[in-house]
Amino acid sequence: MFIANNWADYQVIDTSAGEKLERWGDYILVRPDPQVIWDTPKNEKGWKKMNGHYHRSSKGGGEWEFFDLPQQWSINYNSPSFDKTLTFNLKPFSFKHTGLFPEQAANWDWFGKLISDAKKENPERTIKVLNLFAYTGGATLAAAAAGANVTHVDASKGMVNWAKENAESSGLRNHPIRWIVDDCVKFVEREIRRGNHYDAVIMDPPSYGRGPKGEIWKIEDAIHPLVRLCTQLLTDEPLFFLINSYTTGLQPAVLSYMLSTELKKWNGHVDSEEVGLPVSSNGLVLPCGASGRWSRNI
């Protein structure tokens, strides 16, 4: 399992009865988690002294209940793979999210080291990273902090603006980052026609979604064709390819199969695992999806 165990400002304190108790900087939140099928004693004091609680509705969706929680606050992340501190601006919004998936720090550490090592090997090399379905920019900031030039693509203008705010807060305002509001598939198709190439691809696709012009995305149907398209954008010696999945049917072995099949022409290897967050109350790990990683053999 790929475990995000380098956080200081974030912590899963406990889990029980379909919910997780989390610390986000100075604030305690309780949010639903479908993986938490166990009902264990809620002995941690945070269960009774939270700052925010997202209540899921039996009819779908849900709503926040707040207890002394600011509209926005920030947390920091320091990776062992690069020297820069990443700062993320958080705010609770619809469907339980805060604007950050902290388990992805396990991947930031992984590809951050690949990028920083490649830059040390050749300081003059420009490493170009394409981040698709890039959300509020966690992976974009990590890649940029490690020394890459990043193209950040998301269909939501609001999410791209949020990512820009995170870049500003992280001291990466002047770093070479291209901010693109577009349908990811259409952007990739245009990049192929333009003849552009990248040393690495990151994609964090939703299970279901719509593009800015109503384009429908269903991951089971669309992910493999997109991976195949993206291989046309890779340089002769790509550095890595990362796929994240929060869809139950796309197990790590499925991600490995796709990557191994589509990237077989390059000299590399695949490693796919569940992604997890450590739970401080019991030393166990909460599963949070899966990641498929391809990286160049060195």
Structure notes:
With 298 residues, the chain is an alpha/beta fold. 25% of the residues lie in helices and 33% in strands. It is built from 6 helices and 17 strands. The protein has helices at residues 105-121, 138-146, 157-169, 184-194, 219-231, 252-262; strands at residues 2-3, 10-16, 19-24, 27-32, 52-56, 62-66, 73-78, 85-90, 128-132, 149-154, 177-181, 200-203, 208-210, 216-218, 240-245, 268-278, 285-296. The strands form 4 sheets. Strands 1-16-17-15-12-9-10-11 form an 8-stranded mixed beta sheet, with helices on both faces. It has a 5-stranded mixed beta sheet with strand order 2-3-4-5-6, with no helix packed on it. The longest helix is centred in the middle third of the chain and has 17 residues, at 105-121. It is globular. It starts with a strand and ends with a strand. The mean pLDDT is 94.
Q: Brief description of this entry?
A:
The protein has helices at 105-121, 138-146, 157-169, 184-194, 219-231, 252-262; strands at 2-3, 10-16, 19-24, 27-32, 52-56, 62-66, 73-78, 85-90, 128-132, 149-154, 177-181, 200-203, 208-210, 216-218, 240-245, 268-278, 285-296.
Radius of gyration: 19 Å
Ends apart, CA distance between termini: 23 Å
Percent of residues in helices comes to 10-25%
Total beta-strand segments? 17
